[in-house]
Amino acid sequence: MYKKIIPFYIICFVLYVLFSRHPDFQDGEITSGNIHYIKDSTQKTVAKAIFSIHKLQDTISAAYPLRYLKEGQNVKIIYETSDPSKAAVYAWWGYWFQWDEISESIFITVILLYSAKAITAKPALKAEGEELGITEYVKRKKYN
């Protein structure tokens, strides 16, 4: 059963990733930007990507769990042409693969797999008979 579930999961996840990215991969434009660490309103230092489009400079958050960027590092940025403020750092980890989507999809798949196994684990005697082609049953008395 696992040999059928794993390829099905991979195909579904890849299709989901291809068509759910924002900004959209097919319609988005790619430019380059630089990483700078800036203090936010809570005085924590966070990674920001600074990029320019048509002489206008914009800043987006570049912080993402398990992604380490250095000060001044050059990165690719994908943005929507209609609204450049909706941009993201174009990288495998953080744009294409996001830890929350991966963990949630694996969790849902495991729950559904074990639910299906629990439902079909002990079928009723009548269902087993129908599966084997038995149509007649011995009637039992309700009480001995």
Overview of the structural elements:
- The protein has 144 residues and is an alpha+beta fold.
- The chain has three helices and five strands; from the N terminus they run αβββββαα.
- The chain has helices spanning 2-20, 99-120, 125-132, and strands at 29-39, 45-53, 56-61, 74-79, 87-89.
- The chain has a five-stranded antiparallel sheet, with no helix packed on it.
- Strand 2 and strand 3 form a beta hairpin.
- The longest helix has 22 residues, at 99-120.
- The radius of gyration is 26 Å and the shape is elongated.
- The two termini are 42 Å apart.
- The model has no long low-confidence stretch (mean pLDDT 88).
Kindly list the characteristics that best describe this protein.
single chain; 144 residues; alpha+beta; 5-stranded antiparallel sheet; 3 helices; 24% strand
Write a short abstract of this structure.
This protein is an alpha+beta fold and 144 residues long. The chain is built from three helices and five strands, in the order αβββββαα.
Set down the secondary structure blueprint.
Blueprint: H1 2-20, E1 29-39, E2 45-53, E3 56-61, E4 74-79, E5 87-89, H2 99-120, H3 125-132
Antiparallel strand pairs: 1-2, 1-4, 2-3, 4-5
Q: Helical amount among residues, as a percent range?
A: 25-40%
Query: What does the overall shape look like?
Result: elongated
How far apart the termini lie comes to 42 Å
Largest sheet geometry: 5 strands, antiparallel
Question: What sequence of helices (H) and strands (E) makes up the elements?
Answer: HEEEEEHH
